[in-house]
Amino acid sequence: MTRRLNLFVFVMAAFSLRAQLPAGMPQPVFLWPNGAPDALGQSETDKPRLYPFLPQTRSTSTAVLIIPGGSYKHVGTGYEGVQVAEWLNAQGIPAFVLDYRVTPYHYPAPVEDGQRAMRLIRAHAAEYGIDPHRLGVWGFSAGGHLASTLGTHCDSDAVPVKTPDEADTQSCRPDFLVLAYPVISMEPPETHPTSREDFLGPKPDAALARRYSNQFAVTAGTPGTFLFATTSDPIVPVANSVDFYRALIDHHVPAELHIYDFANHGCGLCGSILPLSTWPQLLRNWLVQRGWVPSTAPPPPPPAPNMPGWIPGLTGPGGPF
User: Fold this and answer.
1) How many Å is the Cα radius of gyration of the chain?
2) Strand 95-99 relative to strand 49-53: parallel, antiparallel, unpaired?
3) Which value, to the nearest 10 degrees, does the dihedral of the CA atoms of residues 118, 119, 125, 131 take?
4) Does residue 128 belong to any structural domain of this protein?
5) CA dist., res. 50 & res. 120, Å (int)
6) N or C: which end of the chain has fewer CB within 10 A?
7) Helices 193-200 and 142-152 sit at what angle, rounded to 10 degrees?
8) Is residue 171 part of a domain?
9) Total domain count for the chain?
10) DSSP 235-271
11) 7 lies in a domain?
12) Does residue 238 fall inside a structural domain?
């Protein structure tokens, strides 16, 4: 009976925004239908949510939580969210786009949202037709910091659960990580200053900054990871990716790093940038090699121009911007 009631609340939370959604968007699922922990109000910006993108034909029981970037100031639900979900769906892979709380929210709100998203997807894995033990996370830029936080600070080092329910009995640890031009460090000189301030607040605590410099939190239990970055990234120093990769190798965690001799940050799947547009195929190869996607899955769609950063007409914590 309890599970049926939870599912009813879960579905009704999604139904409530039906009239507001832009064309083509799936129904959102509120992470906390009765209000998020540490909420500053009850507006749309205070209600983190998931957008489930479920392909009509599945090639795998693997699923991916997508965490767009935006410096912890915005959430790029367009080309770092929906477009990525559609890329995965074309290959028969279920995906979930996370719209999480950003400034004026600071730590721990984004981490709470990331943890809750993982737990909620796993709690409803049967309804989604996915394997709860084959759930990866793909993060971009500051979303890569949140993704790497899930990979290094779950479950024994997770932010304490403040609204325990059936979903929060699930693990928040991803089974694999994909990090695209990620923020990893919260300490100078490697950190991205805007992401640091919007994640930790205007006067960051030194101990907290060290804790969430995730290259120092890697252990042998950190999930296998694929990383993509550019050598001359003008926003987030490439050292973020290099140091995380080095930590993974030092702890004998399966890892693959692709650094392009280019200067770019924030291009998503990079379909409009010919030198970088090959990186999604390298990711597909890695997913097949690691056994997350079968080699018989449909091929990735060809590179395409980027969607807007925020889906026009959408409401939520991360935008518009």
Assistant:
1) 18
2) antiparallel
3) 60
4) yes
5) 9
6) N
7) 60
8) yes
9) 1
10) SS-THHHHHHHHHHHHTT--EEEEEESS--S--TT-T
11) no
12) yes
Structural contact between residues 93 and 63, judged by C-beta atoms closer than 8 angstroms: yes
Rounded average pLDDT over 204-223: 97
CATH for 202: 3.40.50.1820
Residue 320: per-residue pLDDT: 85
| Span 5-44, pLDDT tens digits | 344 334 334 333 344 577 779 999 999 999 999 999 999 9
| Beta-carbon count within 10 A of 2 CB | 8
Structural domain including 185 reads: 36-289
- Overall pTM surpassing 0.90 (yes/no): yes
Closest CA to 135 of 198, 233, 214, 67: 67
**At 101, is the secondary structure helix, strand, or coil?**
coil
Q: What is the pLDDT of residues 108-136, one digit of tens each?
A: 999 999 999 999 999 999 999 999 999 99
Distances (CA, A) of 198 to 75, 133, 188: 12, 32, 15
